[in-house]
Specification:
Length: 274
């Protein structure tokens, strides 16, 4: 693997019109977070902040805790037996592991797109409308407008607008993944988690997903797990490198890929191990 080239990260609008990227607000605060599955400690005292309206990439070798940490942000780890969590995750100042937190509402605010596309065995329209119906949106005109808007945001509308009544399972792999993204953003989450969303796709479909992520960060805070170093360099603003459950280094993507502070980070991003 060739040494990475210097990276230029484009500026983006902040939360309010005219606000600079540097002025974006801290949205996720991870404070000394540790997680164990039984006797196996998967995360070890992780602490860092994620600001709103940026793309943050989690990189590191398999089994280093990237996806485990991602699932902490919407409490998907609650579904696994024998999980113990110490420390805290705050989103917009709220401890999301607090007993009074409504997990259903948390998962509305923190959407997720998985590695393997998982459209429902329903029509394209109903895939996107599903979450809206759960939220009580019943008027057909409102559903139609929201479905069209979400499919347009997911760069899929022009490809499916004439077959909304057909099954989402009939789409190509890349289209299915964009359908899942449309479904996730239809309910307007604040944060979008993506666990290797392009790993099973061909290069053309991967490029479409990457273009989509760059567009969606204008509206959403995005956290992505990826094994693809070039992908992390292309689309992320901030990068966190994990190794054996520890956060080794976190900073701007340009710095991580061109002048990392830790040799282990340098060895990983230049392909010497991993």
């Amino acid at each position: 693997m060739a040494d990475p080239q210097p990276i230029t990260v484009p500026a983006r609008p902040g939360r309010f019109i005219g606000q600079s990227a540097a002025a974006s607000q801290k949205l996720i605060h991870v404070d000394r977070l540790s997680l164990s599955y039984g006797q196996n400690q998967a995360l070890k005292e992780i602490s860092f902040n994620i600001h709103e309206r940026v793309v943050t990439a989690f990189i590191g070798p398999s089994g280093c805790g990237k996806s485990t940490l991602l699932r902490c942000f919407n409490r998907m780890n609650d579904l696994i037996d024998n999980v113990r969590i110490d420390g805290a995750v705050h989103i917009a100042g709220q401890d999301i592991n607090s007993p009074e937190v409504d997990v259903i509402e948390l998962r509305r605010r923190v959407g997720m797109v998985f590695q393997k596309s998982n459209p429902f065995p329903k029509s394209i329209f109903e895939n996107v409308a599903y979450g809206l119906r759960l939220q009580g949106v019943q008027r057909l005109s409102d559903l139609q407008a929201a479905v069209e808007q979400s499919l347009r945001r997911a760069a899929l509308w022009d490809e499916v607008k004439d077959r909304l009544a057909t099954s989402g399972l009939g789409l190509s792999g890349g289209q299915q993944q964009r359908l899942c993204i449309a479904r996730a953003i239809a309910i307007k989450p604040e944060i979008l988690l993506m666990d290797e969303p392009a790993s099973a796709l061909d290069p053309i479909a991967t490029a479409r997903i990457e273009e989509l992520i760059l567009d969606l960060k204008k509206e959403f805070t995005i956290v992505i797990v990826t094994h693809n170093m070039q992908q992390a360099a292309r689309i992320s603003d901030q990068t966190a490198f994990f190794y054996l459950g520890q956060l080794i280094e976190y900073g701007s993507t340009g710095k991580i890929f061109t002048s990392p502070s830790h040799k282990r980070t340098e060895d990983y991003v230049t392909g010497r191990f991993g």
